[in-house]
Amino acid sequence: xxxxxxxxxxxxxxxxxxxxxxxxxxxxxxxxxxxxxxxxxxxxxxxxxxxxxxxxxxxxxxxxxxxxxxxxxxxxxxxxxxxxxxxxxxxxxxxxxxxxxxxxxxxxxxxxxxxxxxxxxxxxxxxxxxxxxxxxxxxxxxxxxxxxxxxxxxxxxxxxxxxxxxxxxxxxxxxxxxxxxxxxxxxxxxxxxxxxxxxxxxxxxxxxxxxxxxxxxxxxxxxxxxxxxxxxxxxxxxxxxxxxxxxxxxxxxxxxxxxxxxxxxxxxxxxxxxxxxxxxxxxxxxxxxxxxxxxxxxxxxxxxxxxxxxxxxxxxxxxxxxxxxxxxxxxxxxxxxxxxxxxxxxxxxxxxxxxxxxxxxxxxxxxxxxxxxxxxxxxxxxxxxxxxxxxxxxxxxxxxxxxxxxxxxxxxxx
Length: 414
Description:
The structure is a single chain. By secondary structure, this protein is mainly α. The protein has one domain (30-406): Growth Hormone, Chain: A. Helices cover 76% and strands 0% of the residues. It is built from 15 helices and no strands. The chain has helices spanning 3-13, 32-62, 67-94, 100-117, 121-148, 154-183, 192-212, 230-266, 270-298, 300-309, 312-317, 323-337, 340-351, 356-384, 387-394. The chain is globular, with a radius of gyration of 21 Å. Keywords: Membrane, Transmembrane, Transmembrane helix. It holds the Pfam family MFS_1.
């Protein structure tokens, strides 16, 4: 058998697209200490950003904001994160920067302190931008570290990393209800102590990364060649971005305006509405835990199909439900829809081996951008119509999950 035939046979028999340099690498156990630390840091990072969402009712009343201006806050945060993340990923693929992570968390700390004393919309937007910059530095390198510490269980590692973020997002409204609502906007500054804890965790992770993996360009840790032609890879990445658009545009409408929807339609107080937001976000965290390991076992494509398209019936029913069923449906939506991102991200990383940072930055950045754009557009839409009408309109977005049929077919399990 000649060399090209041997290479072709090896590609066809590979169980996963992401090749590893040594046969024993996939048998290695995950580095649970590092995965746990990076997951906890993700929880801190996303808890900080969720405080912005939880503060919306207070900021709207205190600063006399419109729904469009509320959406602009999310847009500012999401755009600063989304525009910088692909650049950060590309740079760190070429030259790892292990100690960039603590600096990103310090940017988040500055944003929190600004948010606690913001007297106007302009300062709130500046604070949101600082938190967005922190996230843009954090996510690409953290995703790479999760993959390096995975021991070959890439879906599991990404889920463990992601669940930290989802738990942080879920905890934010609870802390806001317990601390910020009774004590006011200035109490946000106390959460700076949590950000300092995140800096300490990330210093430990950065030391491990510098010792074990940062001595050579990051891309050399992965096989350089994709098993698909360039045209097929570009088409598949485009389909995955459509699915990200569907997920995050819908999630932006649901999470940014959910408390207002409950207060307007069912007469709930701010604190009760934030509790319901917690139920939704906690369900999202549980779904994230399930998505990665299930994708490792049955493949990424089935998880992508189920998580995006499977949520459509619940989304279509939601605008017509009473309070009990609204809570039940949003829990199901969070549980099912949140399982998508880990599967989509690992699928994309396996399409483009050796470019983990670039892929992570692109997908995290695009997700953040779509979330911010969705919040701004839907906020303007809500001002001109109603939040109920917005919920009826976005209910059709999960049907874009049908685009998953265009993902490439192959013998490799993705």
